[in-house]
User: Fold these one by one.
Assistant:
Number 1:
Amino acid sequence: MHRLLPFTLIISLSASAQVNLIPLPAEMRMEAGTLDLRCPWAVEAGAPLHEFAERLQAEIVPLHPDEKLACFRATSIDLKLITPDTLLNAEWYRLKVEPSGIAIAAVTEAGLYRGTRTLVQLLEQGRGSASLPCLTITDQPRFGWRGMHLDVCRHFFPVPFIKKYIDLLARYKMNSFHWHLTDDQGWRIQIKGRPELTAVGAWRKGSQVGAYANQQFDTVRYGGFYTQDEIREVVAYAAERHINVVPEIEMPGHALAALAAYPQLGCTGGPYAVERGWGVFPDVFCAGNDSVFAMLQDVLTEVMDLFPSKIIHIGGDECPKDRWKTCPKCQARMKADGLKDEHELQSYFIRRIEKFVNGKGRKIIGWDEILEGGLAPNASVMSWRGTEGGIAAARSGHDAVMSPGSHCYFDHYQGDPANEPLAIGGYTPLQKVYSYEPVPAELNEKEAKHILGAQGNIWTEYIHTPDQVEYMAAPRLLALAEVLWTPKGKRDESAFIHRLEQEFPKLDSLHYSASRSLYQVRITPKQGAKPGLITVELESAMPDIPVYYKFPGQEAGAMAKDPRKGPMAPQKQRYTGPLDVTAASTVQAWAEPEAHFGTQATYPISTARFHFNKATARPITLSNPPDERYNTGGAFTLVDGITAGSQRVNTEWLGWKQGVTITVDLGSVQHVRHIGIGAWNDAHSWIHLPAEVAFSTSTDSTTFTPFGSAKGQVAGGRNDFSTEGQAKARYVRIAVKSIGNIPDGMPGEGNPAWLFLDEVEVR
Ligand code: ACM
Ligand code: ZN
């Protein structure tokens, strides 16, 4: 019985304005009328859907409005599988809210399940007003692989959390969970035929503490693994949510935990230890030893029994070739099989494993290094070192899943590191994820069909707890979910952020520790009106939330001022427009919502420290531009007054794949005593210090006189290259020479080394 009282009508008008779905459906049409939610609900479905319907009924009972009506009959929620005239996507569904009830139709149970995720979000929103606006949603995903990954090796996460993580994926219609189960720091899956893998390989004698550069370790025994029963439980849990679990068994690299258990499977015979630190290590599976393949085939047989996934991840990334080069068994294999180098030996390894997996009716996927030395015939590629791997795979007719570090690594910082827990590095804020386009522009239509979708990765070197996994995953996962589900033309960042604002309280109530880094104010220095002047823009992702700033403890003589307001005081001010900064000062800025959708009241404060030297905000030219991936603020970044700090953030560093010559015009001939520049050192991320930095000066920009040179610093993190001298100069030139390709034995060997530079210092 549906009595449409005037009261209900008024409420439902506001309800119609509040349909906030993530991901946004392909099509949504608002209809006239409302559905009163206060009668009891009855999920109705045919017999084959009996269990599905029961689970849904149990799930939605708590979403019922508190106010109940005595009704002649229940409001039906009708679930139906249909056989359409035309071919529809397997995850297609249509959801109708009508005054008489709700109906969801789909072609498969998976489609029906996706429809029920929309239903749950609608019922949550309708709860307060006890009604829903009538509407029709016709929906289907843009991509078939909508994935999230989780590394349980660097840190271990118990089964209840794995299920909670799967729930998060399910809520946003993700359909693939990539479970990274083996690595140097731990083997996390019980293998009955090889018990030592977990007896030995699941435990390490300590863990790295703090930043990579410090190389400090504790001595606390750490580990854990999933029993086969637990694995089955997780797989079944995911299956109910129509999420495929893709297990990853790493080979031939990242294998130290396995080698600690079975040292005879390494080239040197060991002994090996389960690794305490994070990185890439030279000891890998021996590619010349048949027992390695026998062991891995036994492992994969048990894995394929546990995981119904049609696709099995065999790792393949970051496998140093040092040991293979000197191993008699590996060299004999190369000779016998006519393999011309160690890359071909890696290809041999993967092909041999692929053949075995294919023989069991499954396919393999591997990280993009499996392209090196020749891709196995039926393999798919997970493109992580950029998009090149995915492009190469698609062009050669292989499927690819895109997971480039630039947009899909959710272990990167999502806000100013000053406000964030220690992370591995990088800078991948929510907006960057939302802007991601999985299909590389380089591909034609036919090739583009091989791009199955994309995946967000959560590596856990610096992520110790379930809370922190959630913090790194949400809300970036929600942005990626919309990228992968919603038609490209419907994507709209600011509309998404508004929907997200209303989703935050929901994430809170589901006990997910979602990050609010989005609310951090971006402090962007720009070239001011005159050389030597910096103008600072403050920007919040939420245009409707006021931004405040202050200059705390302003240094004596600082002349930071708001051009509209005159000289600045160190007290809090509301931001109304760009600020001029002309002397050393610290700016703090934050968004301060008055009452914003009930989201939390504390917001992170962003801080930028400005230092001035003779080169600051002076005209600067570069011999060649930075790589587009590391060029956020352009050449000005090198003279913007902000010295890139001890945690790497890609917006503060400019990155090149070769050397560069930098010229700064000081504006007038001056006495120069010191010239310097900072460089970043992180071999694990392929970032190396310059081979040499040469400084020179000029009065006329044509004839440059050597001023000195610097080289050889080796600490992790920031290194300063500088020299002292005496010159009268207007122009300062800094020639930075790259080391060229990464030396053998280091991560990324043979690839061009990255050169990361920030802040020219002239005194
Ligand atoms: C990876 O991040 N090593 C795939
Ligand atoms: Zn070997």
Note: The radius of gyration is 29 Å.
Number 2:
Amino acid sequence: MNVLVQKYGGTSVGTPERILRVADRILAARRTGVAVVSVVSAMGHTTDELMEMARKVTPNPPRRELAMLLTTGEQISISLLCMAIQAKGARAVALTGLQSGIITDTNYADARIKRVRTQRLRQHLAKGEVVIVAGYQGVSNGTEITTLGRGGSDTTAAALAAALGARTCEIYTDVEGVYTADPRQVPNAARLDYIAYEEMLELAGSGAQVMHPRAVEIAMRFGFPLLVKPSYSDGAGTVITEGSKLESVAITGVTTDKDIGKIAIQKVPDRPGIAAKILSALARERIHVRLIIQSVNEGNVNDVTIVVKREFIERASAVLERMCRSLKASGVVCDPNMAEISIVGSGIASTSGVAARMFKALARKNINIDLISTSTIRIACVIDRRRVDDAVRAVHDEFKLGRLKRRAV
Ligand code: ASP
Ligand code: MG
């Protein structure tokens, strides 16, 4: 069976009219003779609205019931989309995460997919039905409803594509594809025809909102391409694929994350095991640490600085305050108003002078760099949030990314 997996984002199914248009698109794909599985997100901002409602009831909603609440968003969109397809005369079935056999670990808020039991999906496909699957959700321990983390519908789609042996996975969204920078920040940003998995992972991990990084990891592991396409037009979109199939370029994109904070624990004793203690305490609270910097040792103490997303700042500060007392460090300082700007490209490590050019572009705009981190395909600078738009334009111009053309080889 030749299976095509597609995913439609929240904007693409934001209104009943749009749902009808998505139904047409699905039926067009179906007419080419492939079996179609379409994963959908919740309509528009439903997930945010549900989250807000929960917070109005209690500031700290219990994880289990929060997952139960949030997954109702996707149930609305799958039911409506399935009705739309049936109304147009085709056969279709809507399935929740549980019904689709998406088995996860027991983390209610940020669950990992362990396996997909595809039997039921295959039965429906074999009967010629279009299968509409609720994104962002799974089930653990038999019947416990879990969610895959915000934006997780992409991951649902990639996991289904892997499990069903699909040749590609299409991700329909409200933008034309993956860009060299966010077009809202950088008007001359260019759409990329191709991008390598690794580059996309770095872009997604450093603030670009287009794709859920775990979806890219799955596609990379199973070796199928992801196609990011606009749902409102016939634009070609961006193909995310293996780097070896692409022309090499030094830099593919600049991305920013305006939502980060920096917390430093000062003058912690310089002894083996201290960093392990601090990071274990953060891990126990399930805090995602983006960047860790230990300063050069002065005397027998160090400063340890971490960078986290806004949602983790409060909890991370509380953990570090506790560690500060127990380790007899001198204090904790928190700056919640930072941003990160990153350049990403598989040629970074092999092209000399890339970091220097990035830093010069920032210096020309008189932007101070607070922290720097580098990997073989990424250079990131933490800066003042108020300067981030200037920074991204300056860096994008420096590398002339508005004129970037990337071809397959
Ligand atoms: N509806 C979920 C969210 O808004 C999942 C998704 O859109 O992928 O995060
Ligand atoms: Mg979404």
Note: The pocket of aspartic acid (ligand 1) is lined by residues 10, 41-42, 47, 73, 135-136, 150-153 (CB under 6 Å).
